[in-house]
Known about the structure:
Blueprint: H1 5-24, E1 42-48, E2 59-62, E3 65-75, E4 80-86, E5 97-102, E6 109-114, E7 131-132, E8 137-138, H2 143-155, H3 158-172, H4 176-195, H5 197-216, H6 218-224, H7 227-255, H8 260-301, H9 322-329
Parallel strand pairs: 1-7, 2-6, 5-8
Antiparallel strand pairs: 1-4, 2-3, 3-4, 5-6
Amino acid sequence: MTPRLRPVAAALATVCTLTVTSCSSLDVNAIPAPGTSYDDGYDIVMKFASALNLPGRAKVVLDGVTVGVVSEVTLTHDDVDVTARISHGTVIPNDIRAVLQQATVLGDIYVALERPPGGNGPAPALASGGAIPVDHTTSPPQLEDTIASLANFVSSGSIQRAQNTIIRLNRVVPSSDEVRTLTTRVTTDLEALSSNLDSVDQLLDGAAKTAAVVNGHIPELNYWFSPTGQRGFEYLVSSSNYIATVLPGIGSIALGGYWLVPFLNSLADSVGALQESKVAGEAEIPKYRRLFTDYFLPVDKYPAINITSITGPDGRELSGNVQEVLRILGAMP
Length: 333
């Protein structure tokens, strides 16, 4: 190379170096995208646990309407800060939830802002520069992880095992005739049940009344299941054991006591006759009482003879001449 061409070559090399350096500093996201620029809007920060495959300038959707774009994605120590530029006039409540979604399986990921369920009333608006915490954001499962899980499911033999399970179920399930017979019986049972719902109602009503009675005797039940009641149960069981031992002997005596039947019949007749005699005796007792109290006892206490009339052999009344009567009786000389 001649001395004259050396300065020219150096100048050309310098220009190429500057050109390459300037080209390497270009960013495709810095190129203005067509559509709304949201320059007059405000920024909010959404904290995600993972924002993998989230493209730059991804749309932000609220209530099905695009209200902003993602302007910056920053990786922090604990999470991923996604800064979004929201259009002017759009009010975002501070209890909003951010979800990374895809319209199709192979579509781009975008940010969907979802209002919390429930009617708790309107929440205050999220201020400019405000942040949505990570517990209010949801990162979708990655497509690669989903495909890997599906591949593991297919290659692990789960489909074959499911097919074998269906084959075994087909072998276990009875034939169509048996199934038809079974369904017929079930239908008959259900029809009988529907025709006797009144009996079911009575059963339920009785159960309800029984429960009410039991509920009214809760204090007694508490007593029976208390330590004192349990002791009573123990004594009852002991007494039942003794009674169970004695009852067979009593039964043998009762079976051999048929000879007592005539005796008992005679005894019943005697008791009936005695009862009739008692009735008759009760009717005679007042007469005997009157005889003794009105006639015998007064005479026995005050013995005397009242002469009311004396008639002589010739038929004359002699009661008027007392002296002659006494003389006849030998009471006077």
